[in-house]
Automatic annotation (TrEMBL):
Residues 3-291 form the TANGO6 N-terminal domain. Belongs to the Tango6 family. GO terms for biological process: protein secretion. It comes from Hippocampus comes (Tiger tail seahorse). Residues 799-915, 1006-1039 form the RNA polymerase II assembly factor Rtp1 C-terminal domain. This is Transport and golgi organization 6 homolog. Residues 729-790 are annotated as: Disordered.
Length: 1059
């Protein structure tokens, strides 16, 4: 039966051979083709025996078809009627077969096999049958529905194809009554066909928009035809039922198209060029609002607009959707109800897990949330912010519950942090509501960040991004207050509730749980102090990430200004605290408050110094002081501090070296700033604040050269560089750091110092600049004069650096040693001639207690050994074995000297490179003897140096392999000190890493012994670090053997040239 009906549909819709001549128009040809198809169909239904069942079913449908017109002269409508009769016949037959199929009992389970497919229902059509039915439906819609839509309702046929424009022109002469009747008939029949699921798919996948447009016109168009109120009400009910049943994103997409109208078409159809009529736009707006207010309505709107996009301009679509969601529709009952429903659905968009759509959905949610917080703060606060931040709020307000050990679950905390990161950081729209809302919970986020830094956690990066975003966008005053709270300088607000702490979750997250009380007071105090120290370290790590921000510098200067203010009142406070407290006239409460006040002041001072110390140690100067304005503020704090100390001294010479160095640094920074070739007026304007402290120093400081220097600097700043400093103003400033004063020395010694001062003191930055300028202006008269001048200048500089390397001031001495090291690396001629002097100078400074000095000396000795190994290495090896050979060396620190010399030899070994096989043999023997030294530190140092050298020897290590293996295996098995065993295992690791694929060739005789030693450490050694080193060595050995056994294939082509 299905095949017969499909065959009849084929006859009706199949184009016949055209019998028209060249003078026949397209419209006439179409009418002749339609009439011919109808006649052929009716003839075959009556004459063809194979179509008898189709004819009988058609006649049964025709009996019930009250809408069928037998006497119509409209060929197009007659064709539509025949298509509908056949489609209804097909639907009636499929419905009967499907009902029978559902009533038939399922086959027994015994007769079914696991691989047997379930039986198909009888309403399933093949692809060719679906194509035929789809063609008939397209004719029905094109001839019986679209031409009768009012102007602006739906997409007209003229916009779809040239054939549609022709059909539209042919049926435009229909009367309003006939058009309404035909539109109602076609729509009703299509909906009747859609009652069957298999046909509903064919109807709605291609013609849903046309059906919705027809129902809107039939039910809501202002009355222009003689349709009854029942028909109109029925059309409205059918429309609402259809909109509920169909997939909502498709419905929303069709309504949006319907609301937009047909758009411009051109001069050929000017009546349809205008947009949708007002009643349709209002109706579509109301229907869209209803779709939006439904459960998951926001998600349906997003899917309708974004699905099927190319992604090129999707961000514009996301922004448009966000604006739509932000605006409350007029059809809504109240704004409060609307935003309550929409905000909850916006948050659901943030939690979509589908990777294909999550990014776009989250973009919409982020933009909508930001817009709501900026434009609708009154509604966004309770319905958006509170749900998002509720886990963090609960961390602040949590109360102890005996039955509940976990206050905030892991999934809640993870979802909360991710939502904040998406809205605030990804949205990146800093506004006052967003910043204020985040500021309330930021202490909890910082505490959470500190916890995640202690272990592996998936919330570390989001927490850091949130904190950095706030630090980058908040106002300076709010930032400084927050940083003071986080650093412990102010009382922390909105902290995690007492009795609770963060603990690791089972899925890599964090949960808030009850804290187990600590019974030991010492342990509780230790936990508190380490926690505060860790928070400061985490805070400095955050500030270090703000490389392009002024926040670290502003916070540092703010603390420095507070320290300066504290210095001004420190004397009064210390004097007050040192006085004996008269408690005779005080109550116990007053006495306790007084004591607590003293403790609080001292604690705050210590906390301030601690924060400053950690910032200076952890942050680079380019992060703290990245602008000239900040440098000027820093100088201002230093000069103010110097003035305060000067006022307290009352004209007496200041003996505190720290204060002298601070003042010298401030003066040097001012001079360095002024030595720049071009300074902007803004810099001079900022430096004007330095005029007052410089004036105080120039008038009250007891040192004359400080007075002159301050006066000269003040003159340069006041004249904006018009006044130039003279080099004599700086000549005495360098000697100010010398301990002996000129008036306390004998006259002979004083005259020697005064004579040496102009030659030995390095020039100031300004004087160097002036000299360079003079050298460019005054050209030498001959090449000989030029060479002589350069030689005298370099000789004078070399002697100056030698003297500076003996200066008692630590920074001066270290800088001179660094400069001499640079001269060694550049093979300066003076250095070549004075190798012995430079060597002794470095060796003397190697014994210095300050790390800045002896590390500079170590670098210098390593450079000497690199460039002049034959003469220098022998002396270094001797000192490493026996201690310092200098008479001025401190014998009590011989061990420290030998360890520092070991560091020198390690750096020299690294610098040897390919020369290690030639230069390294003396070092190997010394290091092997060092492994038997009585001190464990020397043994460990010798092994460390041995490992660094051996991994660079390659094949030259072969003759020494047996001796080296015996030494290492003996130490691993017999050494009592864990530190030495670690070093021995580490030597094997470096050895295998250095030899790499040459291991089996160089160490073929001892490789098994080394392997057994490593396995022995892995099984028997009690030291965890030694075991870890053994594991690393075995991994290196495993890589070597794998590359040997399973070599990587080489894709090579061999070309053989035949003779």
């Amino acid at each position: 039966m299905i095949a017969e009906i499909i065959s009849a549909l084929n006859v009706l819709t199949k184009p016949l051979a055209s019998g028209c001549n060249a003078q026949t128009s397209k419209e006439e040809a179409l009418l002749l083709a339609l009439r011919g198809n109808i006649d052929v169909l009716l003839e075959q239904l009556h004459s063809n025996n194979s179509l008898q069942e189709a004819r009988r079913l058609r006649e049964d449908v025709l009996v019930d078809a009250s809408w069928y017109l037998n006497d119509t002269e409209d060929v197009i409508w007659s064709f539509v009627q025949e298509c509908l009769l056949l489609l209804l016949s097909l639907a009636r037959h499929l419905s009967a077969e499907l009902k029978l199929f559902q009533q038939t009992p399922a086959p027994s389970a015994k007769l079914r096999t696991p691989e047997m497919a379930p039986p198909l229902p009888p309403d399933v059509l093949s692809f060719s049958q679906q194509k035929t039915v789809g063609t008939a439906l397209q004719f029905v819609v094109s001839f019986g529905l679209c031409p009768f839509l009012a102007p602006g309702v739906g997409v007209p046929l003229g916009h779809r194809s040239a054939f549609g424009a022709m059909v539209e022109k042919m049926v435009s002469g229909q009367t309003a009554v006939g058009a309404a009747h035909q539109l109602l008939t076609t729509t009703t029949m299509l909906l009747r066909l859609a009652e069957l699921s298999s046909l509903a798919t064919l109807v709605f996948t291609r013609h849903l928009g046309d059906v919705i447009a027809a129902l809107c016109q039939l039910g809501y168009q202002p009355q222009k035809s003689k349709m009854t109120s029942k028909e109109r009400r029925n059309s409205r009910d059918v429309l609402q039922s259809l909109l509920v049943k169909v997939y909502q994103p498709v419905v929303i997409k069709e309504l949006l198209i319907l609301q937009g109208g047909s758009g411009p078409l051109g001069s050929s159809s000017s009546s349809r060029s205008r947009g949708a009529p007002g009643w349709l736009r209002r109706l579509c707006g109301q229907l869209l609002s209803e779709r939006l207010m439904q459960p998951n309505g926001v998600q349906a709107v997003v899917r309708a607009i974004l699905e099927g996009g190319t992604g090129g301009s999707d961000w514009k679509k996301c922004d448009s959707i966000a604006k739509i969601l932000t605006a409350c529709p007029q059809q809504s009952e109240s704004a409060d109800t609307y935003y309550k429903q929409v905000c909850s659905q916006i948050l659901e968009l943030l939690h979509i897990k589908d990777k294909l759509t999550a990014q776009q959905f989250q973009c919409v949610a982020t933009r909508a949330a930001v817009n709501l917080l900026q434009e609708k703060t009154r509604f966004a606060q309770p319905y958006l912010l509170v749900p998002v931040l509720s886990p963090l709020y609960h961390c602040i307000t949590a109360t102890a519950d005996v039955d509940c050990q976990v206050a905030v679950e892991e999934w809640e905390m993870t979802q909360c942090v991710e939502d904040i990161n998406k809205i605030w950081v990804v949205g990146n729209s800093p506004s006052s509501p967003l910043l204020r809302a985040l500021e309330e919970v930021l202490p909890v986020v910082f505490t959470l960040f500190c916890f995640t830094k202690q272990n592996v956690c998936n919330l570390r990066a989001p927490c850091q991004d949130i904190l950095l975003w706030y630090l980058s966008h908040a106002e300076t005053s709010a930032l400084l207050s927050l940083l003071r709270q986080l650093s412990g300088l102010q009382d922390l607000k909105n902290e995690v509730a007492t009795g609770f702490h963060f603990s690791p979750g089972s899925n890599g997250g964090v949960q808030l749980s009850c804290r187990v009380g600590c019974s030991d007071e010492d342990d509780a105090l230790y936990e508190k102090l380490t926690g505060e120290q860790w928070r400061l370290e985490c805070l400095t790590n955050l500030l270090a990430e703000l490389k392009d921000s002024d926040v670290p510098g502003d916070f540092f200067l703010d603390l420095l200004q507070e320290l300066t203010s504290w210095t001004a009142v420190a004397g009064v406070e210390e004097e007050k605290d040192g006085q004996h407290l008269d408690i005779s006239s005080m109550t116990l409460l007053e006495v306790e408050q007084e004591q607590q006040g003293r403790v609080a002041r001292q604690g705050h001072t210590l906390a301030l110094l601690q924060v400053l110390a950690i910032m200076v140690e952890s942050l680079q100067h380019t992060v703290i002081l990245r602008k000239n304005i900040q440098v000027i503020d820093f100088i201002d704090s230093l000069l103010q501090r110097a003035c305060i100390v000067l006022d307290k001294a009352n004209g007496v010479l200041i003996e505190n070296p720290i204060e002298n160095q601070t003042l010298s640094m401030a003066m040097g920074l001012v001079a360095t700033l002024l030595s720049e070739p071009q300074l902007s007026p803004d810099v001079y304007s900022s430096m004007s604040r330095l005029l007052r402290p410089l004036a105080t120093l120039s008038q009250q400081h007891p040192e004359v050269f400080i007075q002159e220097l301050a006066s000269n600097l003040r003159a340069v700043i006041a004249t904006h560089g018009a006044y130039h400093l003279t080099s004599s103003a700086f000549s005495g400033s360098k000697d100010s750091n010398l301990p002996p004063k000129s008036d306390t020395l004998p006259s002979k010694k004083r005259s020697e110092i005064e004579t040496k001062t102009p030659q030995t003191c390095p020039p100031s930055p300004l004087s160097v600049t002036n000299k360079l300028k003079q050298s460019h202006i005054k050209e030498p008269t001959s090449s000989e004069d030029s060479v002589a001048g350069e030689t005298s200048h370099s000789s004078q500089a070399f002697s100056d650096w030698l003297l500076e390397a003996c200066h008692p001031d630590v920074p001066t001495r270290a800088f001179a040693l660094r400069k001499l090291t640079q001269m060694v690396q550049s093979r300066d001629q003076e250095i070549v001639q004075a190798q012995e002097k430079v060597l002794i100078l470095f060796l003397e400074n190697l014994d210095h207690e300050d790390s800045f000095v002896y590390l500079s000396a170590i670098q210098g000795l390593a450079s000497l050994a690199d460039f002049y190994p034959e003469r220098i290495l022998e002396r270094l090896l001797k000192d490493f074995q026996q201690g310092s050979s200098l008479s001025t060396s401190n014998k009590d620190h011989s061990l420290e000297f030998r360890l520092k010399m070991g560091e020198v030899l390690m750096r020299a070994s690294r610098a040897m490179g390919e020369l290690a096989p030639n230069l390294g043999r003396p070092l190997i023997s010394v290091f092997l003897r060092g492994t038997r030294d009585s001190d464990q530190s020397v043994r460990a140092s010798s092994l460390s140096n041995l490992g660094e050298l051996c991994q660079r020897l390659d094949y030259a290590l072969g003759p020494l392999a047996q001796e080296l293996s015996s030494c290492l295996t003996a130490l691993i098995r017999t050494e009592k000190e864990a530190e030495v065993r670690r070093a021995a295992v580490h030597v094997i690791t470096l050895l295998l890493r250095g030899l790499s694929d040459k291991t089996t060739q160089v160490l073929s005789d001892v490789l098994l012994d080394l392997y057994r030693a490593l396995k022995w450490v892995l099984r028997s050694d009690s030291d965890e670090v030694a075991v870890l080193h053994a594991q690393l060595a075995l991994e290196e050995l495993d890589d070597v053997m794998r590359s040997l056994i399973f070599p990587k294939p080489k894709l090579e082509k061999k070309i053989v040239v035949l003779p």
